[in-house]
Amino acid sequence: MQKKTDIGLIGLAVMGENLALNMESRGWNVSVYNRTVPGIEEGVVDRFVAGRAKGKNIQGYTEIADFVASIKAPRKIMMMVRAGSPVDQLMEQLFPHLSTGDILIDGGNSNFEDTERRVKLAESKGFRFVGAGVSGGEEGALNGAAIMPGGTKSAWEEVKPVLQSIAAKAKDGMPCCDWVGPGGSGHFVKMIHNGIEYGDMQLISESYWVLRNLLGLSNEELSKVFSKWNEGRLSSYLIEITANILKHKDKDGEYLIDKILDTAGQKGTGKWSVINAMELGMPLGLIASAVFERSLSSNKEVRVEASKLFHEDKEKSLYNKADMIEDVESALYASKLVSYAQGFAVLQKASDEFNWDLNLASIARMWREGCIIRSVFLNDIAAAFEAEDKPKHLLFAPYFKAEIEQMLFGWKHLVSHALKEEMPIPAFSSALNYFYSLTSSSLPANMIQAQRDYFGAHTFERVDQPRGEFFHENWTGHGGDTKSGTYNV
Predict the structure, then answer these.
(1) Which architecture, in CATH terms, is 443-489?
(2) CB-side exposure of 96: number of CA atoms within 13 Å?
(3) CATH 3.40.50.720 boundaries in the chain
């Protein structure tokens, strides 16, 4: 009879099999199982056990009952399957074989509301459920990812040794994995992480496009610019891989980046970030611009036709190369700070709304290594949220206020020149407009309120009366005193 294993893992696609190997390399005995689809996914377990897992402390199973029985109690089972109904179907298959106190861990990109529901369902049956956002891709899954677990609190002490052992380690030795909070909070944090990732990628792509088209930099020159940026305040995983992408050549000896079609895909977490920010009444404009720009990029044929209808050839202005590169760096850094500030503001609002008690400093630290958005300034973000005088907004923290003030001239300069040259920079301009709106004590929203009251009697507040008192005006002289209720969606 085989020795009982420490943990089970279901789903042997790229992330699943690499996580299994990561677990085994940290000293854990692992059971693996893969749902089979006749004619499509047959033999997955056998191939893995006879291949990459050969000679390792990994046991493969093709029957779910045998798989569950092979794991020591209380069982810890990590599910790495497609988000949505496949998770629910798998849970229903597992329930009859589980014992009281067993723990299910969903490591996929599930919607946080689904996780909220699954936590309650599992607990109602005597089990425990953890929704763990995992970031880092294939490399992170194998060598150390950022992991954001939340759900049934009593499960944390059970899963903590495993999850923290397979997580990436920051330079101070701390694992990039810590308890986030109850319910679906872990997957909510991962969702915002992915939204920030969308924003970062869009900002970097706009930087590349400006430098290429306004300055005419070659791919090798561009690679050197991004490599230099990666040595300073912009140091991050995405900047690093961008430098590598720009100098990569295919088998024909040609730059691959120039052969890749300009239509970007997306799997949904960026969109969910925007939708949930809207539900919470929080601005997430930069990330929304990034999501919409991916959607627009997919309409390639329409864009090609429009380019023929509306663009005329014109001479481009000449720019000082060094100055423009510096302006792009300023715009990129300042816009990234805006993106993170917006994301953390949404996290704080969600924490308040759902009573999650999120530790924003801890979340920033979890993102320092392993994950896609790991950046050098996440230490500064953590420090800002741990300050005795915690800022109401990340950009109000003294360190980031000083950084923005230093970057502002180049940021404005870049946006104005790019728009003058008819270059699309939706993320840069969205970030700058957000900053202007945030730092304006007066906005034209008074006109919006007047219009709402004029056509719908939605009322308004007055500058000469206390906040919280609402008024309605009979604008036309024909209306009455009846007014609509006051509320915000």
Answers:
(1) Up-down Bundle (1.20)
(2) 7
(3) 7-183
Q: Which residues are catalytic?
A: 190, 197
In the chain, the amino acid numbered 352 is D
Residues of each annotated binding site for NADP(+): 11-16, 34-36, 81-83, 109
- Please tell me the number of Cα atoms within 13 Å of 326 on its side-chain side: 10
Structure tokens at 166: 């397979």
Residue 116 has φ and ψ, to the nearest 5°, of -55, -45
Return the axis-axis angle of helices 269-279 and 321-354, rounded to nearest 10°. Answer: 60
For CA atoms 360, 366, 372, 378, the dihedral sign is positive
Q: Count CB-CB contacts under 10 A for residue 408.
A: 15
d(CA 69, CA 233): 51
Task: Give the CATH fold of the 190-438 domain.
Answer: N-(1-d-carboxylethyl)-l-norvaline Dehydrogenase; domain 2 (1.10.1040)
Instruction: Reply yes or no on whether the pLDDT at 423 is more than 80.
Output: yes
- Tens of pLDDT, residue by residue over 202-220, are 999 999 999 999 999 999 9
Start-end of CATH 1.10.1040.10 domains in the chain: 190-438
pLDDT digits (tens, 9 = 90+) for 110-129: 999 999 999 999 999 999 99
Q: Looking at this protein, which amino acid is placed at residue 149?
A: P
Residues of the chain with CATH 1.20.5.320: 443-489
Residue-level length of the chain? 489
Instruction: Please provide the DSSP assignment of 427-453 as one string.
Output: HHHHHHHHHHHHT-S--THHHHHHHHH
Residues 229-236: contacts with CB within 8 Å, 24+ apart?
A: 229/329, 229/332, 233/333, 233/376, 233/377, 233/403, 234/329, 234/332, 234/333, 234/336, 234/375, 234/376, 235/375, 235/376, 236/200, 236/373, 236/374, 236/375, 236/376
Grouping H, G, I as helix, E, B as strand and the rest as coil, residue 59 is strand
In which order are the strands placed within the sheet that holds 58-61? 58-61, 30-33, 7-10, 76-79, 103-106, 128-135, 146-151
Report the distance separating Cα 33 and Cα 37, nearest Å.
Answer: 13
What's the average model confidence in pLDDT over 352-365? Answer: 96
Question: What's the pTM?
Answer: 0.91
Binding site: residue ranges?
11-16, 34-36, 81-83, 109, 135-137, 193-194, 198, 267, 294, 452, 458
Which positions make up the binding site for substrate?
109, 135-137, 193-194, 198, 267, 294, 452, 458
Tokens of 293: 């720009």
Tens of pLDDT, residue by residue over 162-176, are 999 999 999 999 999
Does domain 7-183 match CATH 3.40.50.720? yes
Residue 384 in contact with residue 397, Cβ under 8 Å?
A: yes
